[in-house]
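Working notes for the structural subgroup meeting. M.R. asked for a predicted model of this chain before we commit to crystallization trials. I am recording the input and output together here so anyone reviewing the notebook later can reproduce the run.

Input as submitted:
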Amino acid sequence: MIPRPTLLLTLLALAGCAPPGPVVSAPPGGVLLEDRFDGENAGVPASLYHGFRKWRVSGGAVSLRGGDAASPARGLYVSLDGSPDRDTRLTSRAVLDLAPGMYQLGFAVSGSGVEQTLSVGVARWRARVRVPAGAAFREEVHTIRVRHRERGRLWFEVAPPGGPRLDDVVLRRIAE
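Returned structure, recorded in token form:
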């Protein structure tokens, strides 16, 4: 007989579903998810990187960049390189348990060679961020009101051909 956890993971894999990740919640002032990407891949940049500890990559490609002339003091960051024919999505491994209250999502974003729109969401909340071609890193801050308990993953997505760069992601609960 197959043990229940193994059977569940096998059924999820056959259905094309990812197994559930850890569920994370936070009290007011607490952080649900934070990633500066500097600890990824032992701090070494990498093309076509999929080994994220806190994220899954789907659709197109992403690269781990850093220490370059464009942003020498930034450390590592994610380049949403994209794909010629599919959206590229970076999704948190953790399921975020959002109790009713106010949350703040902050992240740094910069542009590549073409203007792009970066879509971002968590649970039922969604936003679109215009990223001009060649723009330097800038901080984006979004306040999210949750009226009823929700669960979901944080995600960032870009349509072909891709290109925006992402860093310093923080989601925190700021008030009840």
